[in-house]
């Protein structure tokens, strides 16, 4: 009888764990709330009309169609019983397991200000990206319709809160959208008049990068037309704008990229959590007292040589593969090994020919960083169709300055 | 001072009217509730995971970006005052005009059974297509999750009501999805077990075509695995299935393709309407008593040589161009001319290498009709990107039997 492995979550951690088990003598069941794996690093491009949802999402069951030991289920896991080795789904179904991998990741968090969510959506799922895109494009439409100049300024002001990778990339992409892609399409307004403000509570943008790259990134953003404000704390958000430590800022569109919290499922595992809700795992990524259960990806508070493993896609993939190896070792009677994180560097793109990259001591900015970013993201995209279409869209965008994915869907307002 | 032309609606009628006015000495304002023109004939392919929304939708302001005399507004027209020559928007804005073209089309209608809408969505907008796609794909997911064999049969039963072009195309495409694209992706169910039932109240499918083609279409559908039932009237729809004159049919997915009614805006024009709510226009397509206002496309009850002009895309385009010509003639002091409809034939596709076409007495079916259908639809698609990507998707689907657009979005159920 083959061992049952249940994997909860089909992001980078869960998917790469499942794939690593393709030749293992186990039966794998992977459960996700959505039917698709999302290539998260390009989500901001869906939010800013550069790519379509379909370009960065792929049904999990399609990715694993040739892996005959894997079953994919669409289901919402509500609770995990680590003592009974049971995974409970909202549908009432219960899955039992011999080995478990939990990879439900993290989502944006408003630090207790959940009422801000309505006014300042964050970017975590494809649906979030479509909602942000809708708001950005509708703001330009409302500005075109408005007769009152004050209203036009209001609709053409875009505030991004938080200057980590997501915030910086969003702000840069909105600036490019306004200054290039939309310019010829309006008659009453000039999209170039858009005012994009990036607000960061810390003292610099992209603070996980070396300081010299932060400085270069800020300069690149400013060249794109983004107003960068650091050391400014948000104190309130409402339907007309934001209040910060520096005063009031009126804006029709406010986007949240300022905080992340781990998936609430972590709390049901019975293990200690860190302040962001992440599970404090053993050095081999297993749950304390449960060598049959691993936690990987953004849900895991893992350390390597005393430093926290960052919440990035390559780390999640490595953790997923490690958890699979732990299961294969256990089946063949070998003890687990500690997880070693291999830092392959990090990169963020800010706009056309504009990016920063930090790769093993090598620091790149501008065009070389941007070219490296393009290459890496095309290579790691899943699926031939996606690589082909994304390459086509990027080439077209580079040549024409246009953006293809400009449909406004689910526009529910009656105005 | 240039004359003001307001066009309400950016479908085939409104868009082709706007484009025909590009060299006219007028200022054109085109208003639509959505920001995009939809290539309606391919909507069923979005609903059945063959194409993405972006492939068949294009922002109206992008299509008209180089037409400097055209302004595009995103707005919801609530009322038209033909005496005051004013168009009222829900936002409170009011547009005045010298010439008006109303092209707000038709939508599906439940003939007074509006409570059926929740259980049996119709196909009119891109949002409708995404909702239908979501329901179809979720049904397969639920079947995979279900333990009870009766539940599996329930989830794998798909009922399409109405065997006009939309219903026949939907049923054929669902059958192909189940029998080819999804086959390798499930472990607990066989998508081939899906039961697709096409129910028509009339005595044959595709009843606007010659009877010999209807017979061939029915045979092609049956070969694809669709159960075709004619002469069967729907008496009830609920969350578990449909009641018809032949009895009860349990099905998780029920789709509505059985009726169409004109846009309610027609009623505010003060002109007589036909039983489907369409505006009874003059032979030149103008409103009775209002030579400055034309109604075009599916909202117009136009006749040609005594026969009604059909509600198809080529007719809407021809009417749009005619209304523009009427305006140009009026500006140069010439009287209006009656509208002449040129029937270029019609075609419907049912599946791979499977279609019927009726073109000026020529009757095609099977592969030749299918090839003609492909060619015509690629040629008439708007935009290079769309043609390129759709051609890529179709080629890929032909070679691999796959479907690319299988993301389930906005899945709100908690199960």
Number of strands of chain A: 27
Helix content of chain A: 25-40%
**Chain pair forming the biggest interface:** A-B, 54 and 55 residues
Q: What order do the strands of the largest sheet of chain A run in, or round the barrel if closed?
A: 5-2-1-9-21-20
Label the overall shape of chain A.
Answer: globular
Q: Report the structural category of chain A.
A: alpha/beta
CATH topology of the domain at 114-258 in chain A: FAD/NAD(P)-binding domain
- The CA-CA distance between the termini of chain A, in Å, is 61 Å
Strand content of chain A: 25-35%
Main beta-sheet annotation of chain A: 6 strands, mixed
Mean pLDDT across all residues of chain A, rounded? 93
Low-confidence stretches of chain A: none
- What is the top-level CATH class of the domain at 114-258 in chain A? Alpha Beta
What's the alpha carbon Rg of chain A, rounded to whole Å? 22 Å
Named at the architecture level, the CATH assignment of the domain at 114-258 in chain A is 3-Layer(bba) Sandwich
The assembly state of the depicted protein chains is homodimer
Tally of contiguous helical segments of chain A = 11
Structure, described:
The structure is a homodimer of 415-residue chains. Among the domains of chain A are: 3-33 and 75-108 and 260-331, 3-Layer(bba) Sandwich (FAD/NAD(P)-binding domain), CATH 3.50.50; 114-258, FAD/NAD(P)-binding domain (3-Layer(bba) Sandwich). Helices cover 31% and strands 26% of the residues of chain A. Chain A has eleven helices and 27 strands. In chain A, strands 5-2-1-9-21-20 form a six-stranded mixed sheet, covered by helices on one side. Chain A has a four-stranded parallel sheet with strand order 13-12-11-17. A three-stranded antiparallel sheet of chain A has the order 6-7-8, with no helix packed on it. In chain A, α1 packs parallel to α9. Chains A and B meet through β5, α5 and α11 of A and β5, α5 and α11 of B.
């Amino acid at each position: 009888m083959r061992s049952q492995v249940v994997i909860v979550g089909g992001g980078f951690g869960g998917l790469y764990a499942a794939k690593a088990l393709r030749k293992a003598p186990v039966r794998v069941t992977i459960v996700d709330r959505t039917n698709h794996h999302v290539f998260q690093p390009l989500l901001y491009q869906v939010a800013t009309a550069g790519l379509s949802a379909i370009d960065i999402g792929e049904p999990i069951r399609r990715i694993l169609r040739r892996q005959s030991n894997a079953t994919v289920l669409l289901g919402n896991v509500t609770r995990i019983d680590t003592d009974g080795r049971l995974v409970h789904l909202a549908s009432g179904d219960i899955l039992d397991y011999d080995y478990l991998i939990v990879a439900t990741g993290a989502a944006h968090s408003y630090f207790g200000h959940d009422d801000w969510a309505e006014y300042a959506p964050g970017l975590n799922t494809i649906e979030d990206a479509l909602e942000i895109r809708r708001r950005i494009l509708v703001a330009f439409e409302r500005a075109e319709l408005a007769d009152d100049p004050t209203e036009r300024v209001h609709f053409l002001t875009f505030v991004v809160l938080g200057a980590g990778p997501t915030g910086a990339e969003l702000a840069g992409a909105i600036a490019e959208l306004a200054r290039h892609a939309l310019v010829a399409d309006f008659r009453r307004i000039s999209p170039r008049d858009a005012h994009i403000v990036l607000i960061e509570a810390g003292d610099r943008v992209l603070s996980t990068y070396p300081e010299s790259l932060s400085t270069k990134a800020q300069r690149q953003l400013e060249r794109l037309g983004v107003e960068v404000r650091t050391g400014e704390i948000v104190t309130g958000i409402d339907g007309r704008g934001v209040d910060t430590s520096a005063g009031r800022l009126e804006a029709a569109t406010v986007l949240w990229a300022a905080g992340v919290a781990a998936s609430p499922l972590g709390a049901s595992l019975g293990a200690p959590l860190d302040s962001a809700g992440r599970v404090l795992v053993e050095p081999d990524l297993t749950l304390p007292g449960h060598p049959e259960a691993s936690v990987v990806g953004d849900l895991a508070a893992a350390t390597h040589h005393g430093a926290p493993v960052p919440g990035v896609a390559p780390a999640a993939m490595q953790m997923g593969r490690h958890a699979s190896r732990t299961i294969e070792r256990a089946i063949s009677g070998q003890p687990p090994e500690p997880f070693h994180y291999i830092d392959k560097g990090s990169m963020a793109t800010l706009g056309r020919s504009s990016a920063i990259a930090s790769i093993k001591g090598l620091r790149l900015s501008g065009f070389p960083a941007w070219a490296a970013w393009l290459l890496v993201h095309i290579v790691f995209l899943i699926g031939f169709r996606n690589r082909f279409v994304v390459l086509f869209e990027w080439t077209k965008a580079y040549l024409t300055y246009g953006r293809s994915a400009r449909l406004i869907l689910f526009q529910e307002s009656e105005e």
